[in-house]
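Researcher: Good morning. I'm working through a list of sequences from a screen, and I'd like to move beyond sequence-only analysis. For each chain I'm collecting a predicted structure so we can compare shapes side by side. This is the next one on the list. No need for commentary yet; just the structure.
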Amino acid sequence: MTYPALKKSLWFMVILWSGLSLTSLPAKATVADGVYAYEKGDYQKARMEWLPYAALGNPNALYNLGQLSRMGRGVEKDYAKAREYYLRAAEKGHVGAQRNLGTLYYFGRLGEVDYAKAHNWLLKAAKNGDPRSQLMTGTMYYNGEAVEKDPLKAYAWISLSAQSGLGNAKTSLDKLNGAMTSEDIKKAKKLIPAMISRQLSPDDVGLMVKQPDSAAPTMAEITPPAPSKVAETPAPEQTAGITADDNYRIQLGSFRAEDVAQKTLDSLQEKFSDIIGGHQGTIEFADLGEKGIYYRLQLSPFQDRASANELCAQLTQAGQGCYVLKR
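Model: Good morning. Structure tokens for this chain:
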């Protein structure tokens, strides 16, 4: 073999070896480096760390890039692009991507609300043991969103979520306990063992950027039905929390434009749903004369000032300013 031919052959082997080594690199090394850069606020560096691994189909890298697009960190906020990243990761069994993909459809982040697609992905994540997806799946069964109303399945899924300690799930479960018969509750609990997949696919959370906002629907959407003729009558103390008087409210902000107020309210309800629980977000119109018209974001109802102060303190600790006012 001539020298030029030998040299060409050696270069080809080097290139081939380099390509093979790239695909066989341990994903944990650079994906974790990207997470570290993200946590330090260097979103551009994080993105550059994840891009080559996303190209190779790494689920965590795909999920993380979806997070950047969803939150607008290092790139412009783009829900459609986030969906593409989430979809590729979700199809590989990434539970967080399945949940977030479902919430994009549930909350209408891609245009119109699509409960059918939301339920498809949330159910997958719920079966894989994700508490938030279990809560949302239960809510959809209770409200009849994309599926027929089924209080038994709703109770079973929400009960599973509550076992993880999720605050919204506990609030919702309390409401259902006060509205369903003991016989129906027993039937619902019998469904639970068969609902979780025997081959759970938990995510490696060490390679994922932290989820800064909760994507669960507000539990104020769950309205217990009127008891049937054979239903047991809930004790007064069980239903008191559902029909609390609107004596106090928490104000979250005040805006000059109603559409801005509504968008802010939607964002806050999603971001702090664990804290807000079953309280309803409202926009109050206020005409202040020469000062102009304002739209105030408020949470209600609160029967007493102490409970309102407690929740406002939790919001403040989480970074959201607020104050309590009397109705």
